[in-house]
């Protein structure tokens, strides 16, 4: 990636200076004013990680209303993987918005939807014939993957995992593990969802992947019955749950068992997909071929789009008219996704994610060596996290995690937290971030870890 100091902003707009620049305290006075308006106009249930109000973003920075320029280690939660305002995305969407904004693919269709389906069929793992269907959000796509699996197997039950996150709709709340803030008071939840243990090397004593998979399979055998099971739904690297990378062999053993038992293996790659982990999909690292793969977030550079792609005979199980939605595969979002795919291929972003992993892990491991409160540095590609614990233990320290995140924010670095215990700091820089900002963001973290008690 070039050490460019600027990237072009919105089409024809001013170039966005690639620097961290603080001209007020964070958040600044105009942001604070807007945030007061938010409190009296927007539902309290919608939380805010960092209340600086954005006016522009691109490359590796977010520019706020007060004139501050922050380094982005969040990508809007793993969405702007190709960058915010990536040139091909901006052009492709601008051209489409002038042509037409919507017809509904179920009324009068358009080529872009078909082309994107062809691209997803080509790019996802597995060489057999595939089909794709498009939706708007990750949760909506996960719900539809389950519908498809039930339609194909004629079985009701679904297995999800400890620490799983699959969304906030009724069925996906049931699949999601964590009560607060996702589920508390929002039940009753959809039925026929069962939970199995996952492989979590930092917390399961380093159990092997095959053994961990056996424990999950035992839940099916003891509590569900294979004749009742439609699908396993799993994130190949858990996202909100704490960037948990399962032990080698875990995913492959589950996938093999599914194949042998006519159970649909659904990979939820909503957060891990589209070059984020240093491969196009996280299952590629393990050579695992899911029956269905769910994508969203990084797929369309910030426009709302999601997809279910998989084996043709499974995706084609639901009857004609059984799948769809008013906006699914909206022309603008499709135009963005086609440009994202082109950008990943043309700009070598898979390699870029790998080089970001190398830089981040090297630096974070050095910070860990000086700071025993970092229990583990883990992740893949540009999806890297540190799990924070009380010194010399594995006891989670969510308080420290909050303080570190707040200190980073105050220094103009956007970072997010995650984890069932709220003790994981996660880093998801856009792959368009220039090296000098990646390094400066890590410098900020280094300092913040030394200064925060
Ligand atoms: C974000 C996320 C979802 C939900 O996606 P939305 O677009 O927010 O509905 C589902 N699964 C995973 C793994 C996610 O990270």
TrEMBL record:
Membrane-spanning parts: none
Give an example GO molecular function. 4-aminobutyrate:2-oxoglutarate transaminase activity
| SUPFAM superfamilies for this protein | PLP-dependent transferases
Pathway terms, separated by semicolons: Amino-acid degradation; 4-aminobutanoate degradation
Which reaction(s) are listed as its catalytic activity?
A: (S)-3-amino-2-methylpropanoate + 2-oxoglutarate = 2-methyl-3-oxopropanoate + L-glutamate; 4-aminobutanoate + 2-oxoglutarate = succinate semialdehyde + L-glutamate
- Pfam families on file: Aminotran_3
The EC designation for this entry is: 2.6.1.19, 2.6.1.22
Region forming the signal peptide: none
Its GO biological process annotations read: antibiotic biosynthetic process; gamma-aminobutyric acid metabolic process
Per its UniProt record, the required cofactor names are: pyridoxal 5'-phosphate
Keywords assigned by UniProt, alphabetized: Aminotransferase, Antibiotic biosynthesis, Pyridoxal phosphate, Transferase
Under the heading NCBIfam families, the entry gives: GABAtrnsam, PRK06058.1
By sequence similarity, the record places it as follows: Belongs to the class-III pyridoxal-phosphate-dependent aminotransferase family.
Mind telling me what this protein is named? 4-aminobutyrate aminotransferase
Q: Which organism is it from?
A: Amycolatopsis marina
């Amino acid at each position: 990636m070039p050490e460019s100091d600027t990237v072009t902003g919105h089409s024809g707009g001013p170039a966005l200076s690639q620097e961290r620049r603080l001209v007020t305290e964070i958040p600044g006075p105009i942001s604070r004013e807007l945030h007061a308006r938010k409190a009296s106009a927007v539902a309290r249930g919608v939380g805010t990680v960092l209340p600086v109000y954005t006016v522009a973003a691109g490359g590796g920075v977010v520019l706020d209303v007060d004139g501050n320029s922050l380094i982005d280690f969040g990508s809007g939660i793993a969405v702007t993987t190709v960058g915010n305002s990536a040139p091909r995305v901006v052009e492709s969407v601008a051209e489409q918005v002038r042509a037409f904004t919507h017809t509904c693919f179920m009324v009068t269709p358009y080529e872009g939807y078909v082309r994107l389906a062809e691209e997803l069929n080509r790019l996802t793992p597995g060489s057999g014939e595939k089909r794709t269907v498009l939706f708007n959000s990750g949760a909506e796509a996960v719900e539809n993957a389950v519908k498809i699996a039930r339609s194909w197997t004629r079985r009701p039950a679904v297995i999800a995992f400890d620490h799983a996150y699959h969304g906030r709709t009724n069925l996906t709340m049931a699949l999601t593990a964590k009560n607060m803030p996702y589920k508390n008071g929002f039940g009753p939840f959809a039925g026929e969802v069962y939970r199995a243990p996952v492989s979590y090397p930092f917390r399961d004593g380093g159990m092997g992947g095959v053994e961990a998979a056996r424990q999950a399979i035992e839940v099916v055998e003891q509590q569900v019955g294979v004749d009742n099971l439609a699908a396993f739904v799993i994130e190949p690297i858990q996202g909100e749950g704490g960037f948990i990378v399962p032990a080698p062999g875990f995913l492959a053993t589950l996938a093999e068992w599914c194949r042998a038992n006519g159970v649909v293996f659904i990979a939820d790659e909503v957060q891990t997909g589209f070059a984020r982990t240093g491969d196009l999909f996280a299952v590629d690292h393990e050579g695992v071929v899911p029956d269905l793969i769910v994508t969203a977030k990084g797929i369309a550079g910030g426009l709302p789009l999601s997809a279910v792609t998989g084996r043709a005979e499974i995706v084609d199980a639901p009857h004609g008219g059984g799948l769809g939605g008013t906006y699914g595969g909206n022309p603008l979002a499709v135009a963005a996704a086609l440009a994202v795919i082109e950008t990943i291929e043309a700009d070598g972003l898979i390699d870029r994610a790998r080089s970001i992993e190398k830089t981040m892990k090297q630096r974070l491991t050095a910070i860990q060596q000086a700071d025993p409160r970092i229990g583990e540095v883990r992740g893949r590609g540009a999806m890297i996290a540190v799990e924070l614990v009380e010194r010399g233990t594995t006891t989670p320290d969510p308080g420290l995690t909050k303080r570190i995140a707040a200190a980073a924010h105050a220094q103009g670095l956007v970072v997010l937290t995650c984890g069932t215990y709220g003790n994981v700091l996660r880093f998801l820089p856009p792959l368009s971030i220039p090296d000098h900002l990646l390094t400066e963001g890590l410098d900020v973290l280094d300092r913040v870890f030394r200064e925060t008690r």
